[in-house]
Amino acid sequence: MLGLKLPTDPRWVNIVEKNIEEILTDHAYCEQKAASTAISLIIGFPEKSELVKEMTALAREEMGHFNMVHDKILKRGWVLGRERKDEYVLELMKFFPKGGSRDTHLVHKLLYAALIEARSCERFRLLSEEINDPELSEFYRSLMASEANHYTMFLKFARKYGNREEVDAKWQQLLEYEAELMQHLGKRETMHG
Question: Which Gene3D superfamilies did the record assign (predicted)?
């Protein structure tokens, strides 16, 4: 359903379990960045009323998720750590060339966002099924559906604002590129990397 070309190695969960505090901190910042992406799309493309409406709702939802993750951190007696570099996203963003028309830039941003949400959904599913922490297992199961909805929403908007054939071709190319990236990632307790 997600279209990912390379699934996460299930052993990634073993890495996560050795440092729950680290994965929760990374997850919290992922939610914050997702809200920030939604806000940047509103700022960058205010004339796209349907997009603005959906991104407003998304920013609220992602900050709600941030708050839920932050509560998990506090409940365990920890504090939110400092933001880490997201190697996955930094490498992913190198795929599309810089420049181009405003509409091309929008489509690229939407495709990146769709892929990040798809990978998050896949990781949440894996955590929900494999982690030996019943509370976190249930938590990640509850978040899985919303990530899948975000993925399909971003892909839908990319197809709406770009040429469908071109968008689908770019999407397949981006999926192939991401699969190559994932061969070298998944060895740290980060949500994507």
Answer: 1.20.1260.10
Nearest to 151 by CA among 174, 120, 118, 176: 118
Residue 79's identity, in one-letter code, is: V
Q: Give the H or E element holding residue 17.
A: helix 12-17
Structure tokens at 118: 């798809």
What is the mean pLDDT, run by run of 10 residues, along the chain of 193 residues?
A: 87 92 96 97 98 98 98 97 89 93 96 96 95 96 90 97 97 97 82 80
Residue 137 main-chain phi, psi, to 5 deg: -60, -50
Among candidates 128, 163, 161, 156, which has minimal Cα distance to 143?
128
* Burial of 41 from C-beta contacts in 10 A (0-12 / 13-18 / 19+): buried
DSSP string covering 27-96, please? Answer: HHHHHHHHHHHHHHHHHH-TT-HHHHHHHHHHHHHHHHHHHHHHHHHHHTT---------HHHHHHTTSS
